[in-house]
Specification:
The longest helix has 20 residues. The two termini are about 30 Å apart. About 25% of the residues are buried. The strands form four sheets. Strands 1, 2, 6, 7, 17, 18, 20, 21 and 22 form a nine-stranded antiparallel β-sheet that branches. Helix content is about 10%, strand content about 40%. By secondary structure, it is mainly beta.
Length: about 350
């Protein structure tokens, strides 16, 4: 039996959910033994034992609610015998940018330099997305900012919720602006013109052709935080696996937005404004460890959902946020099903930056 073990810990309630994943339905009874610092799974003639990280200790006498979910595995709830470690205070991408410092902008996908040795004289947060509508609600006279545009000047960097704006006037490396090729000839001439105008504003990486952002004006570029990595000029660039980076950035954005706006419902939209997925933030105090499972007698906990990490090495724990998601794809959202890794919706733990 090559079972994968997932331990999902809630700091607030000091409780844990143990999930024993099954590659195939068991042909013989499964015996689960839980100790304070160890979990053993026996089935047939095989036995897998996993030692927990030193900062995680379980209370075996509190085990309850053992059940098997088809396609997911065995679920067992329990309490912790001691409080889990607190979440490390990690600076977000917003906090990491400082004025009067030099930075290099890299393409996250291939590592190519997008902006070389740019000195940021000012780093300023942008107002919320609907700030203009709020001004109209509060002002008893015409909006004084109706004709104003928030475009960065030379040396400025404006921080949005999921993007940042910089002035492109003196870049040492200017991204490529591809020409538009329409793929849908049956559109009306107006929609064709709008599509062409939209695609002509795209900023792509010269090396890998990944879309990095878009031009806002003749001298302003909007870069997406999921596509560009910013590092100090005197630092070294170390690429991250795409999946790990995206999980970290999405988790950061969800936590920041839920804290600032007191909301837990989000949508992911495409360039055309179409909603692709609905997301509900369930909690942000999760501590996660996982063993991928092997045929050997001992397993080592590795980060959840990260196939790029080695299966051996020091035992680690990971901060995560738990989300409920539902794709908005035709013929796939007729029935709202909640399953942990189901393709039509479910719950997922996204790893936060460490």
């Amino acid at each position: 039996m090559a079972a994968g073990l997932l331990l999902e810990i809630r700091r607030g309630t000091q409780s844990a959910l143990l999930v024993i994943r099954e590659a195939d339905p068991p042909s013989s009874p499964v015996d689960v033994s839980v100790a304070a610092d160890r979990v053993e799974v026996k089935s047939g003639g095989s036995c897998e034992a996993v030692t927990l990280p030193p900062e995680v200790r379980l209370a075996p006498s509190s085990c309850r609610g053992l059940r098997r979910l088809p396609g997911d595995g065995l679920h067992l709830r329990m309490c912790l015998s001691c409080p889990p470690p607190g979440a490390d205070l990690v600076s977000t991408w917003r906090e990491s940018l400082k004025p009067q410092k030099n930075y290099v902008f890299y393409c996250q996908s291939c590592g190519d330099v997008i902006v070389k040795d740019r000195k940021l004289l000012r780093v300023l947060p942008l107002p919320s997305e609907n700030w203009s509508a709020l001004v109209e609600e509060w002002c008893c006279h015409p909006n004084p900012f109706a004709r104003s545009t928030l475009h960065p000047q030379h040396g400025d960097c404006f921080l949005g919720e999921t993007f940042f704006l910089i002035n492109s006037g003196s870049e040492s490396h200017v991204p490529e602006f591809p020409t538009c090729c329409s793929e849908t000839g049956h559109h009306t001439s107006q929609s064709h013109s709008n599509l062409k105008s939209k695609e002509n504003t795209r900023v792509v990486c010269k090396r890998c052709k990944t879309m990095l952002g878009e031009t806002v004006s003749s001298d302003t570029i909007k870069y997406y935080v999921t596509e560009v990595i910013i590092q100090p000029s005197n630092g070294s660039f170390s690429p991250k696996p795409r999946s790990q980076f995206i999980q970290s950035m999405v988790a950061q954005c969800l936590v920041e937005l839920s804290s600032a706006k007191s909301t837990f419902r989000f949508t992911l939209k495409g360039d055309n404004g179409k909603i692709f997925i609905l997301i509900w933030l369930l909690n942000s105090d999760t501590l996660l460890v996982e063993s991928s499972g092997s045929s050997s007698s001992h397993g080592v906990f590795t980060p959840f959902g990260d196939i790029f990490m080695p299966s051996s090495g020091p035992v680690r724990t990971w901060n995560a946020v738990k989300v409920l998601y539902q794709p908005c794809i035709k013929s796939r959202n007729k029935e709202f099903q909640v399953k942990r890794t189901h393709t039509t919706g479910g719950m997922r733990c996204l790893k936060r930056a460490d």
